[in-house]
Design a protein that fits this description.
With 836 residues, the protein is of the alpha+beta class. 37% of the residues lie in helices and 19% in strands. A hairpin with a 4-residue loop joins strand 10 and strand 11.
Length: 836
């Protein structure tokens, strides 16, 4: 209430101050709007593109989004006190719900004992033991295969380690910064810091006591010289998501060094390759707690890998046995070349032998003996039968000739599916370098549609070419295969909706306008948009091509983000003129962002009318055209040198949006009769006896370096232009907008409608979204690059000048259409942007 009273008082007694404060608050609104849409856009891009960030970022992004929405609502409240009651409370409620939905699911791991387990104590699918140890335990328990003796340090021990050292919060904070695509160079540095945190930590005494007890027992059995292999066994490792080679294995570890080796394995959970692998498979950090498998080190002479189905050429249906001298680790780590034997899977007959001349002394082969081969093949097929799928089996042989199985995991076969990129690249390319707004591939007939068209005008399966990514396009969503726009932003409302529904969308490069021959030639023909790679093709999509790369929606990252976006992304408030465009009908953060931005712009469009005659510090603009116009400088919109001047001249205008309007308004081809001044001020002063200030019925411009609010009066005509245009960087276009309202005329009603038809043709071609009611027209252009906006303002200026008396001479639609063609050719050629 205090804010409301102050604003009303300021408007009455100090209108200059009130206008400047409103402009300052409005800039805050735009900044909070940009921040909120950017955050929402980042979350949506993560949900509809390959995994590129750690899920730990989701709670932080949700918190920031909620805060941005609340700040946006507060700014709208300050801009228009009392006009939108409940908007701040609604935003705060949305922010709380965002926070609740964004909370990552608890891993469920306990920091309590048991901290170690014998292999014989491990049960199937044991989270305590992790994937590798659980598999090894099954080998010895269920199949009685020879496995080196050992034990497991459980995932509970890992949880206790993290808790004891207070690492959960700092780990999550660092993981939240992991963006594989946007900031790939940061990943290695962050991972290195994470590993240092682990290595600096101390293992709780209860865990150390358990480990030392088990190591002592093995020393008693195998002697003081026994050494150990300490291997990773994260939960899920060696499963369908193998994590093969991502974690650390430490060999030949002395009993006194087990603690160091254990921490080394724990730290490997956070090496850059392991983090990247986990992120790309959509797994949460808490889904892969680390256990460690401690096994007696085998003094090997040869080792290697057996594939029960050759993964490189599975169609040949053969087994592949690889062997190297010494430990098999040097093979799986890529540090050695191997001798290879291939066997028929049914008969086990040897099919081929490939020897590496560098293996062994004097170039002797390191292949296992025939009897060992038979045993290994038998083990391999038994493992395949047991696990129900081809296996990747790591083995070794000690110097006494005994064979051991070290681990077994599913074979991951090479993907032999058709590569759609190869198929598409055979088509003629129309344009490349398109900006990805929503990834995917869509195909269909190319259709050019105006911004006023509705869903019924869109043929099903179309690839739509549009001037902008207008929110109104959401009405045609189900009928579209893809969208190519002249201009737009990935932070736009329609972009958000498109990603929500998986619709491929891209922005054409500047040199490829909708009116270019290349695009015009496509209309009515089959085209393919590869929005993921930013390429537009001429032709149809091959029948055997998968349109979009399928993404596993059942992984934790997808499930968690999908739940959050089901609340955050939906946009139901699409029509600002609808009855339900109210605070009470806001159901999502996206709705709140849309509502606040729309209402804030509406507040600014009435700014000049509300301030009106009370603005005392405005100065009259003296120019060559008979327009009574007063300017008020809000913030660096007028040359500082003219501050003391009694009048202003056009050269004093440094507001670029106002400058562009003025350039269009004073185009050399526009004729301004010397007696056309919109009011006979001499007669008016005589009749009113000077009681009414001339400013009250003059045109008024409120200007800043990046903003203009122009209230224009031409006799019976009334027009408002409200625009803010920034051009500092790519993000600035998210706040750019132009609002235009026009009403009135001196001719009869039918002729006024013909003039509105003329204006519609021009504005629609420039990419404005239009609404009309009787003889009033409103047009909006938003979230476009500065060059496009400057072109639009130039055209608006010319439009205001040309249409002063246009309605007087119009008799039918053919007249308005012919004049629209003439106007476009004369005034609307692009000056800064690509032009539409």
């Amino acid at each position: 209430m205090k804010s409301l009273v102050k604003r009303l008082t300021d408007r009455v007694f100090t209108p200059d101050k009130s206008v400047r404060e409103a402009y300052s608050i409005f800039l805050d609104v735009l900044e909070h709007d940009r921040q909120a849409l950017t955050l929402l856009s980042e979350m949506e891009m993560a949900a509809h593109a390959p995994y590129v960030m750690d899920a730990a970022c989701i709670p932080e992004q949700a918190r920031e989004l909620g805060q941005a929405v609340v700040r946006l609502a507060r700014s709208l409240r300050d801009l228009a006190p009392g006009r939108y009651p409940g908007i701040v409370a609604k935003a705060a409620s949305l922010a709380r719900e965002l926070g609740n939905l964004a909370t990552l699911p608890c891993s469920g791991d306990s920091a309590s004992p048991p901290y170690t387990l014998d292999l014989s104590d491990i049960r199937a699918a044991s989270r305590l033991a992790g994937g590798k140890a659980e598999h090894v335990a099954r080998l010895t328990r269920d199949l009685d295969l020879p496995v080196p003796e050992g034990f497991v340090i459980t995932t509970n021990a890992f949880a206790a380690f993290i808790e004891e050292n207070g690492l959960r919060k700092p780990v999550d904070e660092m993981l939240a910064k992991m963006h594989l695509m946007d900031r790939p160079r940061d990943v290695a540095g962050l991972a290195n810091n994470l590993q240092k945190m682990i290595l600096r930590g101390h293992v709780p005494s209860a865990i150390l006591e358990d480990i030392e007890e088990r190591v002592s027992r093995m020393v008693e059995v195998f002697g003081e010289g026994v050494t150990f292999a300490v291997r990773s066994s994260a939960f899920g490792e060696d499963g369908q998501v193998s994590f093969a080679g991502q974690y650390e294995t430490v060999l030949d570890v002395a009993s006194d060094d087990i603690e160091w080796a254990y921490k080394t394995v724990l730290a490997s959970k956070y090496c850059s390759k392991a983090i990247s692998y986990r992120i790309r498979h959509g797994l949460l950090d808490c889904q892969t707690p680390m256990a460690s498998l401690v096994m007696r080190m085998i003094d090997t002479d040869i080792g290697g890998v057996l594939y029960t189905l050759d993964p490189a050429e599975p169609e040949k249906n053969r087994m592949a046995l690889f062997s190297v001298p010494g430990h098999g680790e040097i093979l799986v780590d890529g540090g050695a070349r191997a001798d290879v034997l291939f066997f028929d899977r049914k008969t086990r007959a040897e099919l081929e032998c490939r020897l590496d001349a560098e293996n062994g002394p004097d170039h002797l082969s390191c292949l296992p003996a025939r009897s060992d081969r038979e045993i290994l093949l038998e083990y391999g097929m038994a493992l395949e039968a047991y696990f129900g799928e081809p296996q990747d089996v790591e083995w070794c042989r000690d110097r006494s000739g005994h064979l051991y199985i070290l681990q077994s995991r599913p074979v991951h076969l090479a993907d032999k599916t058709q590569n759609y990129e190869e198929e598409l690249d055979r088509l003629p390319t129309v344009a490349s370098g398109l900006e990805t707004i929503s990834p995917g591939v869509g195909a269909g007939k190319a259709v050019l549609l105006g911004t006023r068209a509705n869903a019924d005008d869109v043929p099903p399966g179309s690839v739509l070419f549009a001037p902008t990514l207008s929110p109104q396009l959401a009405g045609a969503l189900e009928r579209l295969s893809a969208v190519c726009a002249q201009t737009g932003s990935r932070a736009s409302h329609f972009a958000s909706v498109a990603r929500e529904f998986g619709l491929p969308v891209a922005i054409l490069p500047r040199e490829c306008s909708l009116t270019s021959h290349a695009v015009q030639a496509l209309l009515g023909h089959e085209v393919v948009l590869d929005a993921s790679r930013g390429i537009l093709f001429n032709g149809s999509l091959p029948k055997n091509v998968v349109k979009t790369a399928e993404r596993d929606s059942d992984v934790a990252f997808s499930r968690h983000l999908a739940t959050l976006l089901q609340f955050a992304s939906p946009l139901t408030l699409t029509d600002p003129t609808a009855e339900n465009f109210t605070v009470d009908h806001i159901t999502s953060p996206h709705d709140a962002i849309r509502f606040c931005h729309e209402k804030a712009v509406n507040e600014m469009t009435g700014l000049g009318e509300r301030a009106g005659r009370g603005i005392r510090k405005s100065k009259r603009l003296v120019s060559s055209i008979p327009l009574s116009l007063y300017l008020l400088d809000l913030d660096d919109g007028i040359r500082a040198e003219s501050a003391s001047a009694k009048h202003l001249v056009p050269e004093d205008i440094v507001s670029r949006p106002m400058h562009m309007l003025w350039q269009g308004l004073t185009h050399k081809d526009i004729v301004w009769p010397s007696k056309l001044d919109h009011l006979d001020w001499t007669e008016f002063d005589r009749v009113s006896a000077g009681f009414i200030d001339r400013k009250a019925l003059s045109s008024l411009a409120l200007v800043a370096s990046e903003y203009v609010h122009l209230l224009v009066r031409f006799g019976y005509h009334f027009a408002v232009v409200d625009a803010l245009i920034r051009s500092e960087n790519d993000e600035s276009e998210q706040t750019n907008y132009i609002f235009f309202r026009f009403k009135g005329g001196g001719a009869d009603y039918d002729k006024r409608l013909l003039r509105l038809h003329f204006m519609q043709l021009i504005l629609e071609r420039m990419g404005f979204a239009l609404t009309t009611c009787s003889d009033m027209l409103q047009a909006n252009l938003s979230r476009q690059p500065a060059p496009v906006c400057f072109d639009a303002l130039y055209v608006l200026g010319a439009l205001l000048g040309v249409t002063r008396l246009m309605d007087m001479g119009m008799t039918n639609e053919a007249d308005s259409e012919a004049q629209a063609v003439d106007f476009w050719e004369r005034y609307a050629q692009p000056r800064f942007g690509a032009g539409v």
